[in-house]
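Hi R.,

Here's the chain you asked about this morning:
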Amino acid sequence: MTAALSLAIGVGANTTMFTIGNALLFQSAAGVVEPGRLVDIGSSRNRGGFGPSSYLNYRDVRDHAATLDGVYAYSRFPQAMSLGVVGAHAGVESVFGSVVTENYFTVLGAVPAAGRVFGAADSSQPEASPIVVLGYPFWARRFNKDPRIIGRAVTINGHPFTVIGVAAEGFHGTGVRALDVWVPMNMAAAVMPQGAAMLADRAAAWLLIGAQLKPDVSLSQAAAEIDVIGRTLEREYPDQNRGTGLRLLASSPIPGNGGPIVAFLMLLTVIVSLVLIVACANVAGVLLARAVSRRQEMALRLAIGAGRARLVRQLLTETVLLFVLGGAAGLLLARVMASVLASRLPMLPFPVDLALTLDGRVIAYTVGLSLAAALLSGLTPALAASKTDILSSLRNDSGLVGRLRLRHAFVVSQVALSLVLVISAGLFMRALQRAASIDPGFDAHAVELASVDLAQAGYTNTTGPLFIRELIDRVRALPGVQSASMAAGVPGGFEVRREALAVPGLQTSDGRFVGVDWNVVEPGYFATLRTPVRVGRDFSPSDRAGTQLVAIVSESAAQQFWPGENAVGRVLLQPTRGPHGPTGPMQPMLVVGVAGDIQSSSLVDGFARAAVYVPLQQQYVSNVRIIARTTRGQRIADQFRGLLGSMNPNVPIMTEQTLEDSVALGLAPQRIVASVAGGLGVVGLLLVAIGIYGVTAYAVARRTREIGIRIALGARRTDVVRMVLLEGLSLTLIGSAIGLILAGATSHILEAFLFGIPPIDPLTFAGTTLLFAAIGVAACYAPVRRAMHIDAMEALRYE
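And here is the predicted structure, written out as tokens:
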């Protein structure tokens, strides 16, 4: 039972990892025709990486690629939009949509569930095609699959659109993003901030590009052509494409084959593989002990003419049946493990549709893994059993030293590998503890967030700031709200906006600009986050449009720009943005304050980057977040929703979460690895205890006669205890020594995830070693107790 359960956990954990990898990297996209011919095209920096491209670069690829049948593009991240309906199904709600080229559905071969999708007949001229395609789940949820929605008018971000169709059930392109609507590329200005400028800016990398190979064209041929096109674009547009090329890869749910995600999955796969190896070693030890108990049976079979090959086949068949049971249980357990692992993921800023299904590929992997593990676990015990000496075994006088050494080796391997697991979990737990002890520059507790996009309700640069000021005043008046503000970005946000500024007198690498983290905030932002303003003042209501542009810089920015000097009263120069990046004329911004550093992108960066804050009333942006600190940490999203509904029902809340959830995204890999390695490490500890107990108990039973003689000759009970403990603890110590060496090598690989915790952390290594020693002593308790109560006269008669 223990063997089958340990196998089920080992196989289930490995199946879970393969299921996730299969869904992210190999699973064919639903509703897509000929997915094997699809490719992804991404920009590369210095011939490495795989990132988004600009719309103008996409058009050049589309117009010059001769090896591709069709080239399409779509926005990198889903865009939060508001969709309004009048008449039947009336109301306004937040949706997530993607801006796609007019040939997007055509190249993918997508067939609509109702109506039609974008096609060649739709104009590509700017704002000439105010049409929209709905996602099937959204159509079913919002409109109850009403076919009469086709041809109906809706508003998206306050602009009129016509619903022309519904995508097929299950279709969400080639990725894992769960989308509610698709909007044609020429309508980007209506649904995206600065959408028109992004279409005209070759330096604005915001699109992912896909294509279909022409028949009889190989992946390498197309990749070579795309590389040439990328080099040509770099030569023709050096200012926008300097150091940037193009790469072509086979299409994947994670464009670019998800390098960081693949690396993380490989790390988890190594961890769960260790558990399976420990489980196999446990099973091998059990089978070896069973072979010893059946040595007379094996000898009798050999004596009456059975061949050794037949015995090996019989024993392997028994082992395979055990692994079939463990594999079947592992498949069932994988569904539970996948759900648990998914629950450990932090909330993403947009919905995803990741189908963790046990398809044919997953089942084939599990069957193959179970059979391979069965052969590896059962072959050695089967061979050992088939080599039984017939005469000595029939007399029950077989020398078992070789088999005992083999079983000891299995227990030592269990100890070593389990120790690696537990040390890995301990290191990640220490890393999380260190992250919790780092001062991020703000207090995330009891802070509620809600994002809105005022452009979706038709607010302009004139009316938007007035609405924001009134909204903040009303939020501050809500019951339970201690303080409130608004900002374009918050700590731990999915992306940190970067801006180029000029600092008079500062020498920079390009001679002009320096990059900074950029945020647009309302007065009270720093007080709400409990970030101190060290020098100078916070923004005030008097910092409004038409007055002197002002800014607050972080301590890191002040030290970088004006080391050892007072930053207040200094001037930053903000360039006006043109279609090709920062240009003149320069706008001077007066520094009025220096705020404490905020680690905005991750709590564990290890350093704070230069940051600049400007008042929202002077540099208005429509996409902002409400930030409210509550007195008792209560959730107040419903109050936000009611307040916005009373002010303007056309302003929906796009996303809502706590600041603690927002910053948790940066620590997700460490939390997942700590959970997986820790949980499976406990399983390894249990198997280690069982293995040590089995070996020690068998040693006591085998040496009962010897112990009786020792007691009869005057040996003390403490001598007997020492002898038995030595049998079990020697295996623990040898395994721990080997495990410490392996863990030392492994921890250096994990160093990038440990945030300053040394790879050879004395506390983790020493604590884990003591834990395993204690487990070894505990496992020896029952055999020691039995040995202490051996009666000398009974032991002398023991056979």
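One quick note: Residues 390-402, 601-606 have pLDDT under 50 and may be disordered.

Cheers,
M.
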